[in-house]
Structure formats: structure tokens, C-alpha cells
Amino acid sequence: MKNLVFFILSCISQIALCQMESKPITEFVSYDPSKEVLIDVRTPDEFNGGHIDGALNIDWFSSDFNKQVEKLEKDKTIYVYCKKGGRSLKSQARLKELGFLNVVNLEGGFDAYSKK
User: Fold this and answer.
1) Which one in 1, 3, 9, 95 has a CA-CA gap of 20 to 30 Å to 27?
2) Which CATH superfamily is domain 21-115 in?
3) Does the model's pTM come out above 0.85?
């Protein structure tokens, strides 16, 4: 019985992860801070080299990533980006695992955004 419950919970979490939303960062124009949060998951050095106005810097590689994002409201739409898209995709999956309801990965990352 214990294995069946674990299997069912695993299936549910996989289904939730498969329903992740993405959009090209080049289509990202602005956001409403009262309903949305923009997170740059690059390192502080990368962030200080340039970022989207209003973005919070929460480093994916930080040992307290989970603790930092727990301070955010789970019912707000969360936009995540990194340099090219790898870390933001991982961050998106982690945020979904942590119970955030609407997390959008901004594909292409800051490199694509800075070229638009």
C-alpha cells in the first residue's frame, strides 16, 4: 500500500511538472509587481553585469535558493530567466515542486533579451 501511494504521488508530481509554461524572453515586455514576480536566477556577478529592471536576483547555485524563494507569494505569477535558459528551466521545476502555482520560464535568457 505504501508503494502504491508513493507511485501515485510521483505520477501526480510528474504531471504537474509537464504542465510548465514557457515563453520567449524576447516577447517579455513588462510585468505587474502587484500580481507577478520576475526572478533572475544568475549569479550576483552576472546580475550586476546587467539585468531586466525590477528583477530579483535569487542565484540558482545558492545553497539557500529554496529559503529565498519561500518568501515569495505562491499565488503570484513567477517569471524566471537566466543567461540562456538552462538554470531558469531547473528553477521553474523547483518552484513548481515547492508549490508555486504559475511559473513561466523566459526562454532564451538574458543573452536573447539584451539582443532585442
Assistant:
1) 95
2) Rhodanese-like domain (3.40.250.10)
3) no
Half-sphere exposure of 29 (CA within 13 A, CB side): 0
Asked if 57 and 42 touch (Cβ cutoff 8 Å), the reply is yes
Known catalytic residue at 18: no
Q: Which three cell numbers stand for residue 26?
A: 524576447
**Per-domain residue ranges for the chain?**
21-115
Catalytic position from the list 82, 103, 104, 112 = 82
Give 108: exposed, middle or buried? Use CB within 10 Å, 0-12, 13-18, 19+: buried
Average pLDDT over residues 36-57: 98
Q: Which residue has the cell 510548465?
A: 20
DSSP per-residue letters across 40-57: E-S-HHHHHT---TT-EE
How much is the pLDDT for 93? 97
Q: What average pLDDT does the segment 56-78 reach?
A: 97
